[in-house]
Amino acid sequence: MACNPRNAFPGTVYNNADRALDLYGDNIEVDYRGYEVTVENFIRLLTDRLGEDVPRGKRLGSDGGSNVLVYMTGHGGNEFLKFQDSEEIGSWDLADAFEQMWEKKRYNEMLFMIDTCQANTLYKHFYSPNIIATGSSEIDQSSYSHHADNDVGVAVIDRWTYYNLDFLETQVTSPTSKLTLADLFGSYDESKIHSNPGYRWDLFPGGEEKGRERLVMDFFGNVQGVEVEGVGGNETEWREDMRRLEEIIYRARARGNMTGAKKSETPVEEVIAPGRDLGKGRVEGAAKIEGVEAWGQRVLGAGALLGCALIWGGASWLESR
Amino acid sequence: MKHISCLLLSLLLGLLVSADPKYKELLNLQPLNPASLLASFNFKSNASLQSYEQQHFKYIPRSLGQILQHAKTRELHLRFSTGRWDDESWGARPWGGTKEGGTGVELWAWVEGDSDADSFARWVTLNNALSGLFCASLNFIDSTRSTRPRMTFEPASSVFNASSENLYLLHGSLPREVVCTENLTPFLKLLPCKGKAGIASLLDGHKLFDASWQSMAIDVRSVCPENGSECSIEMEQTVDMVLDVDRSKRPRDNPIPRPIPSEHLQCDQSKPYAGDEACYPSDANLGQSWTLAEIFGRPIQGSCLAEDSYGQLRDSVCINVPHEREVNLYGDAVETKNEAGTSRCFAIPASNPFELVLSHIGPQTFNKVSQPPLYASRSFTGHGQERGGVQTLLTNPSTSSSIQFVYFETLPWFMKPYLHTLTARLTTASTTSPDIIEETFYRPALDRRRGTQLELLISVPADSAVILTYDFDKAILRYTEYPPDANRGFDVAPAVIRLLPSSGNSSSNSQAPLYIRTSSLLLPLPTPDFSMPYNVIILTSTVMALAFGMIFNLLVRRFVGADEVEGWNLAALKAKARGRVAVLVDRVSGKGQKLEKTVQ
Questions:
Q1: Are residues B321 and B409 both part of a single domain?
Q2: Which of A316, B127, B249, B567 has a CA that sits 20 to 30 A from residue B581's CA?
Q3: Does residue B262 lie within any of the structural domains?
Q4: Oxidoreductase: present as a keyword of the record (chain A) (predicted)?
């Protein structure tokens, strides 16, 4: 957390003790943070199993044409990665979540990168197509941190992440960069990383040969291509589109006039029906407490006590006879 | 003639009112003491209610407007705050405390609905949508954190009547929420100039979240002018921060103070122990002079929509220092000084950067900070993991008038107060005074479904202090209900105090409400040993393995009596060995003779 009171540099995350590059930046947006970062939420995000109230910013929103990059880093071990120091995600959890994504057509190609101890075990169980996976270290190998910043008081970055970032910062200079995954993976120097990075190509159609030709910006860049169907243009088709658009505009105008006339109704918005079980958790208002000194209550209490004493006394008197 | 001039005057006034600009921004800089500076940013956008309802958005941002329309929210107040307002040295709060929230995130809104359940469903929708827009975990405001305050909040909109229009007030707070750059980014994007121009260009997350205290506020309300002209919807965005001037002036990549070399050290000679050997560092020139760029990291980048409907530039920066104090400007700005001699304002032209330099003069050139109407501090008492107590000290500093206020507290369900232990007494008296608490609104907690709500109407006599105490029990949570950092403790939302205008003074009835918030509390709950399940698994497995081994051993072993076993004597061993040798000899010699041997 960049604004944790223990951070001597509020609102800043550095990748290096020279503090040249502020990773947190000036206009960052974070979708899940704090206690929201759980294994459950992560898998729900991947598989889109979210409630209808969840806003668009907290959904992945990918489809069968999207390339998805999953980059994970943290503490982990043989076939697991820790979340929040209290729970773990396993290799099978990831594999099954990705399979569900594939079945739901939520990605076209996926690049999975992981930086943790024994990272290469995490993608061992993947079985869905079109995934390229890479990790920082083999089984029984540790992934080390790069260096520590004494003013921050902790290690600032992991080695593998550091050299990945270094490649992206120095080599990939524009959104139109033509560098491929072969260039990225070729930049890994095992003597610098202090562990052996691993790759998995067998799920990708065409295998390693085709996978290495994929551009880095296919995954790291937000490059959106426009697909034009039926090149040459279909006259009737776009006329039909225009007609439909006109209809939509006409309807919107009609609605606008209506809202202007009838203030109480806004038909643009659907009415939210009260949820099935929401009534159970509804918030009730507070009730006013009458004075504690109320004499009526005291008399009632004293009367009840006296009654009990009389009954007890009477019963014991009857018994003694 | 008189009538005509009156008419003209009223016409002119009407014009002035209708020429109310659609967007206004103002930065108010107020040095609180030599070392700290209060910067209050205020951005006000307007749109007519009709255009808003037709989804015609201009200065009211579409992203927020559509959320409010979808969740049928008529009035919204959202706060992001960190730090503590130090009212001992900083005095009264800016905006009378109406634009600040408790530590973390606080939200209250008037939501339309046919019933309680209906409005609550919309409240949940609103929270979820806002959590996406503002990058905060507002979706954690569920039924356990929502309350319906009775006396503490009143609608700021002049247009509606909450009871007759089926409007429900809901309030929720997240004291644990960290406020950071990701909350400022969407906040700036709601502004017409997106923080690129005007005073908003000074807002930088690195400086804002380095402040000693900061509060970001968004208020949306509807306003109907009394002269019957068109109703409008008004959105006000406010950022208040108290900057430590010295801290802000340090370079960003090297903010950690290093020891000053002894030759640059200035000693405070007024101390009795000052001498050649001892040096008590002087704070005489702490934060004395500064420029905008030094404090905020950059100068103001021109102005944002600063021209009013007559093409005149409006003031957008004001600084509250006496006129004796020299203020230098870089960039062509128009300066106006107020008559009281305490502040001056600047109108900034659109395109030029604007820089302001407050010069270094003696320590007396500050406006005196005003005294807050009430001091409030809240703390935990007691010890142990089972129960505890809460003690609130409410001090009325006024020597002449008593003060009446609403004290509003929401407690999480796992903190269970006992209402019969609620007492209020004057610090001067040894016994409780029954007339201090005038009214009590209370909603008890239900486990895992809702928290406690406590609203008290309290009055404190002049020049005295009241101690409010109650006891509570700590609940034990289920294993899975503990957060990842359970040993840090659980945050309890700050208490909200709304000061009521004193009834004796009729002129103060119309004044704006005043609010004060206490700091949040950190409640340590009994936490289990989280490695316990693993220990249990290991121990149980060991016990089971031992038991299984023993039983298995018992089942497969054949038991024989001691007398059934042949003795272990040398003669038998010799006989056996001799037998083996004989067999070997026979094989070698090929005689094929069979020898009888004993089986043991």
A1: no
A2: B567
A3: no
A4: no
Residue A164: name the closest of A127, A134, A141, A128 by CA.
A134
Domain count, chain B: 2
Asked whether residue B310 falls in the same domain as residue B392, the answer is no
B183 in Cβ contact with B136 (< 8 Å): yes
User: Would you say B79 and B94 are in contact if contact means Cβ atoms under 8 Å apart?
Assistant: no
Q: Do B315 and B436 have their domain in common? A: no
- For tokens 């199993």, the residue is A49
pLDDT band at A274 (very low <50, low <70, confident <90, very high): very low
Q: Which burial class, exposed, middle or buried, applies to A233 when counting CB atoms under 10 A from its CB (0-12, 13-18, 19+)? A: exposed
Domain boundary among B309, B331, B358: B358
With 0-12 / 13-18 / 19 or more C-beta atoms within 10 angstroms meaning exposed / middle / buried, residue A245 is exposed
- The partner residue sitting opposite B137, judged by closest CB among A36, A272, A288, is A36
Asked whether the CA dihedral B457, B459, B460, B462 is positive or negative, the reply is positive
Task: Confirm if B74 and B222 have CB atoms less than 8 A apart.
Answer: yes
How do residues A22-75 score in pLDDT, each as one tens digit? Answer: 888 888 889 999 899 999 999 999 999 999 989 988 999 888 888 999 999 999
CA distance B116 to chain A (A): 7
Quick one: CA dihedral B54, B57, B60, B61, positive or negative? positive
Looking at the fold, whether B400 and B341 belong to one and the same domain comes out as no
Task: Dig out the tokens for B77 from the structure.
Answer: 């107040």
In this structure, which amino acid lies at residue A171?
Q
Segment B38-94, tens digit of pLDDT = 999 999 998 988 899 888 888 899 999 999 999 999 999 999 999 999 988 899 999
> Within a 13 Å sphere around the CA of B410, how many CA atoms are in the beta-carbon half?
28
Which pLDDT score is estimated for B558? 84
Looking at B475, B495, B523, the residue that finishes a domain is B523
* Separation of alpha carbons B10 and B16, rounded Å: 10
Q: How far is B153 from chain A (nearest CA, A)?
A: 14
Handedness of CA B587, B589, B595, B597 (dihedral sign): negative
The dihedral through the CA atoms of B7, B8, B9, B12 has a sign that is positive
Between CA B471 and CA B480, with CA B475 as vertex, the angle to 5 degrees is 155
Chain A hits for B177, CB-CB cut-off 8 Å, are: 34
In a domain, B312, yes or no: yes
End-to-end CA distance of chain B: 143
- The residue in chain A having the minimum alpha-carbon distance to the alpha carbon of residue B212 is A5
DSSP annotation of B352 reads S
Shared-domain flag, residues B151 and B291: yes
Q: Is residue B107 part of a domain?
A: yes
**Pairing status of strand B232-244 against strand B36-48:** antiparallel
Which position has the token pair 């294993």?
A: B479
Same domain, B240 and B380: no
Q: What span, in angstroms and rounded, lies between the C-alpha atoms of A155 and A149? A: 6
Distance CA B411, CA B175 (A): 11
Domain co-membership, B209 together with B318: yes
What would the two tokens of residue A90 be? 């396993």
Residue B365 lies in a domain: no
User: Residues B248, B341: one domain?
Assistant: yes
For the ranges A162-176, A195-209, B329-343, which has the lowest average pLDDT? B329-343
Instruction: Cite the active site residues of A.
Output: 75, 117
State whether A282 and B120 contact (CB < 8 Å): yes
B467: containing domain: 375-523
**A55/B132 CB distance under 8 A:** yes
Reported ipTM exceeds the 0.95 cut: no
Closest CA to B520 of B38, B152, B143, B85: B85
Interval B379-437: pLDDT, tens = 999 998 899 999 999 999 988 888 999 999 999 999 999 999 999 999 887 777 778 89
> Are B55 and A268 in contact (CB < 8 Å)?
yes
Please say whether the beta carbons of B272 and B21 come within 8 A. Answer: no
